[in-house]
Design brief:
It is built from 8 helices and 5 strands. It has helices at 13-24, 31-41, 44-54, 61-72, 90-102, 117-130, 138-161, 174-186, and strands at 2-6, 28-30, 81-84, 109-114, 165-169.
Length: 187
């Protein structure tokens, strides 16, 4: 199964992605993990990405696309995967479709975890306090959620039009959310 998991910061994507990937027997592919692995390994793509990251800039789509393309060609991803954090732009949606299409593949489902904004703000503020991140104020967290909504709406519209989008309530206990995700995949 080839899945994409979307959701705002604090929605529990990382937790659910790990559980879901384990249940399905496919790798959880996170762009953050890909960046860190390439930078740590000193790969040419990693060195290029590090240049942007060190300057505080976004890693360009071309570099991100190349890293994802490379990761999807690895043996463990051939039978399926769960993408987390990619695509983030409409251009990346097109590039992912092209990558998969070259191998006669396509996404099976796109799952969006939906959450209550006030609940997520509380989660993120708690996590920020636990990690000692004083820069994550309530205003900053709310702005991050607004930006996510603005940037993600066009992507979810594309996937909805393709009949791939499934929205899952991301609120509640971890096990309950996982059960809803698995039930949606069985449909």
């Amino acid at each position: 199964m080839r899945l994409l998991l979307m959701g705002p910061p604090g929605a529990g994507k990382g937790t659910q992605a790990a559980l879901l990937a384990g249940h399905l027997g496919v790798p959880h592919i996170s762009t953050g993990d890909i960046f860190r692995a390439n930078v740590a390994g000193g790969s040419p793509l990693g060195l290029e990405a590090k240049r942007y990251m060190d300057a505080g800039d976004y890693v360009p789509d071309s570099v991100t696309n190349d890293m994802v393309r490379d990761r999807l060609t690895q043996t463990d991803a051939q039978a399926g995967f769960l993408l987390d954090g990619y695509p983030r732009t409409l251009a990346q949606v097109d590039e992912l479709d092209s990558m998969l299409g070259r191998n006669g593949q396509a996404l099976d489902r796109v799952i969006e975890l939906t959450v209550d904004v006030d609940e997520v703000v509380g989660r993120l503020l708690k996590r920020s306090a636990e990690q000692g991140r004083s820069d994550d104020t309530e205003d900053v967290v709310r702005r991050r959620l607004e930006v996510y909504g603005e940037q993600t709406a066009p992507l979810t519209a594309v996937y909805d039009a393709k009949g791939l989008l499934v929205r899952i309530d991301g609120m509640g206990e971890v096990a309950d959310v996982t059960a809803r995700l698995l039930a949606a995949l069985d449909d």
